[in-house]
Each structure stands twice: as C-alpha cells, then as structure tokens.
DNA-binding transcriptional LysR family regulator (Aminobacter ciceronei), 329 residues
Amino acid sequence: MNTDIRRRRSVEKDQPHQAMPPLQMIRAFEAAGRMGSMRKAADDLGVSHSVVSRHVKNLEFWMAVKLVVSSPRGLRLTREGEIFHAAISTAFELIAATTAELRPPSHRRTLRLWCMPGLATRWLGPRLPEMQHLLGDTELVFRAIDRLPDFSVGEADVMVGFGDPDDLPVGATLLVHPRMFPVASRQWLDAAGPLESIAALVRAPLIHEENRQQWADWFRKAGVAHDALQGPRLWDASLGFEAALAGQGVALATRLTTGDEMARGRLVELFDTDIRLGAYYFIAAPARRKDRAIRKLHDWLAGELMRSEAAAASSSDRSAATGAVGPTL
C-alpha cells in the first residue's frame, strides 16, 4: 500500500474529518479521469501538469485510497477511482443542468460546437452555411479542437469527437465509422518510388499525430509486424494532412478529410485496404440534450456524414483499379 495512504489512515482517527474533499482536488481528478492523462487535464483546466498531479495525489491522500494508476496510454482509473469519478461527473452534470434551467434565457440562443480539427477544416467548414441555415436564428460558435469540453462549466454545447466505437464517452452517439488508409502526395511517390507491399510502409517516413499509436494500431489490423515506428509527431490530423500534401511522408486519413484532394490527384491512396480504427461521435451537454436545435444538428450531421462516407466508398470501388497504389488487403 502507498506510504502516504497508510500515513493518512494512521492519522485520520485523531483529526476532524471534512464531509467532502476540497473542490480543487475534485476538479483536477474529474478532468484527469475524463481526459485520460494529467497533461490533457492540465490543458483542459488551464493549469500546469504538476498542479493537476499534485491535486490528484492530495485527493488520494485525503481519501486514503488509490484512484489512478499509470498506463502506457496515459492514466487508468482504479475500481475505486471509477466509482468516485462516476459520482462526481453526475454531480457536475446536475449542477450544469440546474444552472441552465435557472439562468434567464438570452434573446438569441447560442450553440457552441466543438469538432476534431481534421473534420472541422476539411469536411464541416465548407458546410457551415448549410448548417447555419439549418439552425435558423441560433447563433453558431464553431471551434476546431481535439479534446472533450467540460460541459459542467459550459465550455461547449456539442462535441463531434473521434474515438474507439466500443468505448465512447457516456451519452455519446456514433455518427460514422470511416475507413482509414495511408495517403501520400504524387511528389513524394515520384521521389520515393513504388512501395511493393504494406510491410514496406514501416520503412517509409510516417506522419504521426500526437503519438504513434494510430499507425501501430493500423499495422496491427493489417497484420504487419514492426519495430519502433519513426517519423515526426504532429499535434493533430489537420497538421498531418498538410504535411502529406507538402510531400513530407505518408499519413493516415479518411475519405471524409481527403476526398477533394484525392479527386484532384494531389493525394494518392496507398494500397486497397478496408481498415477502420475509430469513429466520429456526437455528444451534447446534459443540460441541452433535449434542445430542438441540438437534435436537428445531430440528425443532420449523422445523415450528411453517412452520405459522404457512402459516396466515398462508391468512388473508391469505381477507381480501385487505378486510384490505389499497391496490392489489395
């Protein structure tokens, strides 16, 4: 057992005990559990990584129980941590919902929409006029960002996120589960020469997002073993997309984000594969899930994304013989 926790249990019998931990500890732990890492929680709260880590450790000491453990992909909640996180998340959602109910309505409604940067820039951006027409008098505030908002403090009303379809956030609904494949520019292909197999991709300059996990998962599903992957790590899919266009290497993409550039011949799909790693999902603030504008936006996004993916699949089928470089998987 952790030494600090043992010390806490040994002294708590002799000291007055508060009914609940200090709020700053709870906020830090809630953000860490929601974001899956101390660093992302720090970005979410606008504080340093060390502040979040200290608050979480102090909370564990206060409660005399281990709440989080480190893992290769960030942090993982213990059984006790999951129980406590579910409770405080529900409490924060209740506060947000009650606040929204009691606050006097503004003359003009606002809908704050967050979206993953790649989809926001390449797919949703060109459709903003259509979406604004759909929402009517509701003012749209649109932000491209790759983290979940904190609905409890009103950061956003809706998030279009991307994640494991089998492990979506509580309250989220799946929008589309797109095919993901490697792309490169004609410039890079002319310089690098043809790739004879998917295994040859391991030696190519791969463009990664925040970490190399996405490419590792893609190779695993493709049945290709590899050692440590190389290549630059960029912050999000949009930056990776631009790097691929500039001829800097091979990026993973979907037809939703690269369809126009592939149609113009600026990007080329490498190999004919059918691998799906993650899904786009829709999640709304608990206080606004029954809002008419939110429901309309959800239905429109779900329909348009499914139509776009279906059209992309049809286009891919028609051009498979000439559009993809390499063998079929």
The chain has twelve helices and eleven strands. Confidence is low (pLDDT under 50) at residues 8-16, 317-323.
